[in-house]
Amino acid sequence: MHVISSQEGGILTLVATPIGNLGDISARAVECLNEADLILCEDTRTSAKLLQAHGIKTRTRPLHDHNEQERIPGLLELLEQGRRIAVISDAGTPLMSDPGYRLVRAVIAGGGHVTAVPGANAAVMALTLSGLPPHPFMFCGFLPPRDSARRENLSVLRAAEQAGLSATIIWHEAPHRLAEMLASLAEVFGPERPAAVARELTKRFEEVRRGPVGELVAHYLDHAARGEITVVLGPPPADDTGSRDLDTHLREALKTLSIKDAASLVAGIVNLPRRTVYARALELTRDAG
Questions:
Q1: Global pTM?
Q2: 157: helix, strand or coil
Q3: How far apart are CA 284 and CA 289, in angstroms?
Q4: What backbone phi and psi angles, to 5 degrees, belong to 153?
């Protein structure tokens, strides 16, 4: 492991870039990118447009999911030599559904200096425009593209709600998967759950469509979405009976069935993964002595 002195070593700076409007980059971000010895880009071709627009001539190299791990040793050596390295993504704040996390962890583990220049973030902007409770909130990146994996992921979140979680949840989504993703939300969380779809934020055709998930599903089945998309789902209503319903069904089933069979039966009733229901059945059995 390379050990980088925070006093003598270089600096790794995470620099937020615009999510659509090139004018949204800060003066401090431009200064940092100009002064850096190297800029790590998710895609150098995409970043070239931004850098050229602001006259930034710093050398660039790609840093993405497929090469990040192998690049880390060389980058740590550069920091050890006192170099200044900036990290940018194609748009928004680095690490937020973008590369850089493994590099940051490696620099921190080596005692190096990591800092950031804040700026645009699509998830936070969509949250503030959604009209839904701004805090607490969870940002969950992208959901799995396959329907079964996506539904399982969402079911875990619904189970967390039934255990007491109450937060606004945010995802990014590809336009060609938006309608089916919203349909999954309606199936797992209910068609009446309030939500918002934010599209093309900061760009010419910016749009935020708000309403119950079921209505949003109907709209995007008839109107294909385009551009960068962020989906915001409101928290469960105050009178959500999910956790009480789960326990009621389980207690009734456990009167005549084994824990395994009761979990299988109730999982289908409450629309949750069987292993989640099984874990709750074990808890109820232990509590009952």
A1: 0.83
A2: helix
A3: 9
A4: -60, -45
With beta carbons less than 8 A apart as the criterion, state whether 189 and 142 touch: no
CATH (one of 1.10.3210.10, 3.30.950.10, 3.40.50.720, 3.20.20.70) for 123-233: 3.30.950.10
Tokens of 128: 């503030």
Which residues, at least 6 apart from 44, have a Cβ–Cβ distance to it below 8 Å? Answer: 60, 61, 62
Query: How far is the C-alpha of 249 from the C-alpha of 243, rounded, in Å?
Result: 10
pLDDT digits (tens, 9 = 90+) for 211-263: 999 999 999 999 999 999 999 999 998 876 565 677 888 888 888 889 888 88
What is the enclosing helix (H) or strand (E) of 80? helix 68-80
Q: What gap in Å lies between CA 143 and CA 64, rounded to an integer?
A: 19
Cβ atoms of 232 and 170 closer than 8 Å: yes
Contact 158, 242 (CB under 8 A): yes
Give me the mean pLDDT over the 157-172 stretch: 88
- Domain 11-120 matching CATH 3.40.1010.10: the answer reads yes
